Every structure is written in C-alpha cells, then in structure tokens.
TrEMBL record:
Belongs to the RuvB family. The gene is ruvB. It comes from Streptomyces cacaoi. Residues 351-361 have a biased composition (Gly residues). Residues 57-188 form the AAA+ ATPase domain. The RuvA-RuvB-RuvC complex processes Holliday junction (HJ) DNA during genetic recombination and DNA repair, while the RuvA-RuvB complex plays an important role in the rescue of blocked DNA replication forks via replication fork reversal (RFR). RuvA specifically binds to HJ cruciform DNA, conferring on it an open structure. The RuvB hexamer acts as an ATP-dependent pump, pulling dsDNA into and through the RuvAB complex. RuvB forms 2 homohexamers on either side of HJ DNA bound by 1 or 2 RuvA tetramers; 4 subunits per hexamer contact DNA at a time. This is Holliday junction branch migration complex subunit RuvB. Residues 261-361 are annotated as: Head domain (RuvB-H).
Amino acid sequence: MNPENRLVGAETDGEDADEQAVEAALRPKQLGEFIGQPKVREQLDLVLRAARARGGTADHVLLSGAPGLGKTTLSMIIAAEMGAPIRITSGPAIQHAGDLAAILSSLQEGEVLFLDEIHRMSRPAEEMLYMAMEDFRVDVIVGKGPGATAIPLELPPFTLVGATTRAGLLPPPLRDRFGFTAHMEFYEPAELEQVVHRSAQLLEVHTDPAGAVEIAGRSRGTPRIANRLLRRVRDYAQVKGDGVITRETAAAALEVYEVDARGLDRLDRAVLGALLKLFGGGPVGLSTLAVAVGEERETVEEVAEPFLVREGLLARTPRGRVATPAAWAHMGLTPPQQPSGPSGSSSAAPGGPGQPGLFGA
C-alpha cells in the first residue's frame, strides 16, 4: 500500500495536480482566517506586527509538527502579511551547497524562503545556511585544492521559514539561528468542525452540523485529512444522495472508503488485526508484524504506528509491539485469558517480565 495514496494520509507527494489545486484553494490567506493553533497564531502575529512597524524583515521562523497541520499554509500567510513574495523549496532538493547558493543569490529584499523538511538538507548546504541566516552573506568557493578561493556574496535581508516533521534531527546551531520557533499541535474536534464548515462553503457544498461532526471525528486531528475526507464525502453525496452532507451520508461514504469511526483505515486495522488475532496482542517484533500485514517495516513504523500509539491502541515496548485493552475493544475482540498459576493467580504470559518476547523486538 502506497502511504501517499491513503485517504487519511497527511502526505501530499502522491496527490495529482487537481487535488493539489483544490488544497491550495482551501488554504486561508490571512492569519485571521487560520483556524486552530491559537498560541502559535498569537505569537506569530506579534512577530509580524513588530517587523512591519520597524519597516524591516521578520525574524527567521521554524515550524515543527506532524504533516498536514498547516506549516506550509502559515509560511504563505507570513509572506502575505509582510507583503513579500515567497520562494518554496525543500530540504531533499538541496543536496549541494551550490544548490542553496543559487537560490539565496536570486532572492529579493524581504522575500520569504520556505524550506520544507529542512532536516533533510545536506550538511554542506546546512553549514552555508548558518552564515546566510545570521550575516546575510555566503562564501562561494571557486576552484579546487590549494588554489580554491572564497568569494563573499552579500545577500539582501530575507526571512527563512523552515518546516520540519522531526525537529529533533535539526542540529542545535541551525535551530538556534531561528528567531521564532513554534510547534504545531494536533487539532481538537471542535476546531476541525470549523475547518470542515469553512471548506464546505468554499466548495459550495451544503453540510449540516452533524455531518461536519462526523467528518471531523474521523480526521485524526489533522486539517488536511479533514479536507480530503470532505471531498470524498461530497462525491458520495452527489452521486448517491441529494448533494447534502448529513451524518448518515458522511458515515456511509466513509464506510465505502474504509475509514472507521475513530479514523482508522485499512492499513491501521490490518496492523491491529494481525497483532490481536495472530499474535495474541503481542509482544511482537516490528519486522514480524510488517510481514504479517504484507507491508514494509518502514511503512508500518512511520505511517500506521504514530496514530495508533497516539490513540492508545498500541504500545511500543522493549520487547516489541503490544496491543492495549482499547485495541481489543475497538476491534470487537476479547483478550485471551491468561492461565492460572499454582497459587491461583495468573502466571506471566510468554514474553512477560524477565523473559524475551515470544516474537522478538
């Protein structure tokens, strides 16, 4: 299963041009239109207002958090609020210092440079970025060996907005050069309801309050997923209904797309089903679990597990992955009874304390 093609996946790499165009149309254009993240909005508003009052550029901004929470949208809002153009690139696209030098040397004064997945930038480019952020200058190396010469290149003042899903991978020297850092939190259901209503208005789709609640509750705390589910429910309502999104319509549509009441999709339920039915709830090693569901180890670990752990359905332990009581209840299964010991008390199950896990970690 391609993780980029999951209906509840927050990644965008696998989306076609039409999907991306719709996503762009649904993005808020001003800070006042941005829903959720109240602390981040308040802090960022102060940063931008102060910069405008001084007539200068805003401090460099680092945004961290899971995919789909609005990091790219906020970068565009920063540019719009400052009345500046924006240049968009990503860490994986910058593999050499020369790649970064070419981008930096073409920036205009006050321009916003959005660098997505900044933690995946190459080390030589990262070291060049230190000086660019702090002194607005880069040294371009001409030639090789003893005859190499460093030519200083002055840069116009600009604002770097870095986005990362793994802030812990950023080296401290880079992280410390950002004047403002913010962590994006997952959204509450009430906030996602507002997102659904706003997007429905832009898409010219009538959604009653109960329908918005149903979609928001299955959106995994992520606005991008809420918008994606809304579009699929809209399709269902137009083809099999009267075009109005009600609770019943939303529930029926998302059942077709295999998104259950808690937002779990086919891959999530396959992982839980294998863990419960094949391995008795664990502990079981990640590689064994991945083979059982026919997926790559990285797909299970990076795509399915984060949400399952956050929902309290799965636990990572030193002995392997273990299902929680909530997982048994959600899947409608009964946990196996542990055999009683000689004294009448339950004895330790295989892989219990002091024993290696039955299926390895």
